[in-house]
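Table S4 entry, Peptidase C14 caspase domain-containing protein.
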Amino acid sequence: MNLGVPMIDWLRGAGLVALCAVTSGLGAGPVAAELRAVLVGVSDYELDIGLADLQGPANDVRLMADVLDRRGAGSVTLLADGVEGAARPTRAAILGALAAEAEAAQPGDFVYIHLSGHGTRQYDPQGDETDGQDEVFLPIDVARSEPGSGVIPNAIVDEELGAAIDAIRAKGADVWLVLDSCHSGTGTRMPVSGLRFADPQALGVDLLPAEQVERAVVAPTDADLPGGYIAFYAAQSNEFAREVDMAPEGEGPEIYGLFTAKLAARLDRVEEAPSFRQLFQAVLADLNDTTLSGMGKLQTPAWEGTLIDAQLFGGEATESVQRFALRGRQVAAGKVHGLTEGTLLALYADAFDPPEAAIGQAQVTRTGATSSRLQAVAAGCEPRLAAPCASMGALPAEARFAQVLARPLDMTVRLAPPRDLATGVPLPGDHPVTLALAEAVAASPGGTGGYALALDPEDYEVETLHDGTTLWFGPQAQIGGQAVGLGWTGAPDVPLTALLERIGKAETLARVMGGLAGQQSLLDISPVRIDSRLRAARPDDLMPPGAQIDIFAECQDALFSVQDDPFVPLDGGEDLKQCDSVQVRVQGLSQRLYDVNRVHIDSQYCIHAQYMPVEGMTAPVGLGDDMTICADCPGDQYTAGAERLFTIVTERPSNAEALVLEGRVENCFAPSRDASRSGVADAAVSRANAFLQGLAQTPHTRGAMMGATPVSEIWVTRRDWRVLPRAQALRQAGLLAGP
């Protein structure tokens, strides 16, 4: 039976999802308490039902039993004909063994399920399949269908297998399902022995060719189940799962499932337990290298599940290594994987090779949705926008995989030359404000953030406006005709170079974090859910402009008025006002430990950071204090203008200190206490410094962040909003006249 990528409905009951919805690391389980297994091999079917016998399933079971024994499996149930000590693989025995696993499983256990045998399709009597057909595995006691029923007696249908897997996951155990069986999506019969496909017509099920075309159904996962899962399928929907003779030349036949044999060989090569992703990529490459005389390319396996970046057979998190297959100068990854033109990749001969075994580097020259074109580059290549590295000729002939090293990111902070607030006309070049800004930009050393400052009238991210007395800076320096953002009056005790350094640091951090948020792969979803929420104050609780205002009393009363109002999602792009509340909540979705940092860049270009660890599958909790918006607070603390909020999730490797940005990135004030206020040690402070130093050393690459500190993965979310001046907020609410 083929259960490839289009065959989503096969494990509908198990909650499997389409490949493009698989998450990276999501749902990975904790250290396994026990490795358990159910191995099923069905070879010798009854003669009167018309199925050809198979020779490989018994050998598959023996082979996998040996592999699991070497890995210390505590319980292995064998259901196979022709295997000593194994039970007969009947329908009742198979389902009974899976039920026994659900009964015995404990949280943290890892259950491996292997099915080798014939598979096919039949009509769906329940009517819950969109294509009107069930995918079925055929036990040894399968019988012919009654005329007209379209249902194969004793076959195990997809919903039954899915429910059995769900029952195990419900106990908190992780499940790895391997299916070395197939069914044809076209109904074509090939005159080749050793195919694990049963034609439905041989069992009395007369499916029309049109009815045998597979229709993909994306079934939602059951997020409430504590256990994770991963499934490996032997072949795609238009291919056959094959049996091959693995005996040395001149010796008797030793028939195995091709996929099982390649899988077992790779498992025996694993020394430091890589991820399921690395294992799958290696097996896929091995199968692509295998051909039989006259057969051309063989089968292409597929996978589904939440454990793809977890360690094999359960355990600690891996570094979520994602390597993509090469075909000449083409790499099987594109925009949906986060690749852009200029992305730098390391080249490897094997999916299991350690990072230091790279045999070359390449750079993306052209990218599509799912594939990209590469050119070989020297090891010193630094990926910059619009400046590709020189080509070094052909890629190494032995290169078969590529892994992302760094993505390009332009770190020049561009400011617009100043314009008059009232007219919008640029100030003359000899205007004192224009001269002062140009002089300060030229004198800026770029700070320790690796950024450079430049004046650019066309392509800028910092707007500058002059209202006659004050020069204003901001992503948007006016709202409703009123200047907002960071103001400079020319006072000698506040040098303009100091304000530009503040802007440079804030924009550098925003550029890097924004680049990470924008380049995140669709297949790499954060293992910590981030919810930004808003509870808006009532406009009629605010004082009018010009009134004698006690800011603290005003917001205290306004917040009391809405204390029973629900928070609503803050999606970004909203207009906020005085006394609104912003809340960030986080929820762990896997059993691993993650560091979560909240970085808020206010309208004054001041950076505020708060940190918390998230471990395990948690209920939503607040990340840092709720923020009360202040549009016109006294002093140079906080005013109206554009603001940005980033949340940074990083996986914490084993035996590593926390990555705490709190107390490390602030640029407007010295924290009242150092980072130890969060209960972190000096080593954690050093790790945060190394993280930030990596930005300074190579600010134009995402890879620099990974190389400077042992962060295996990083997920960034971004929310932008505007804080309206008081008058503008009341005008929008219809409480104040004027445009």
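The chain has four domains: 8-305, 323-406, 413-500, 508-730.
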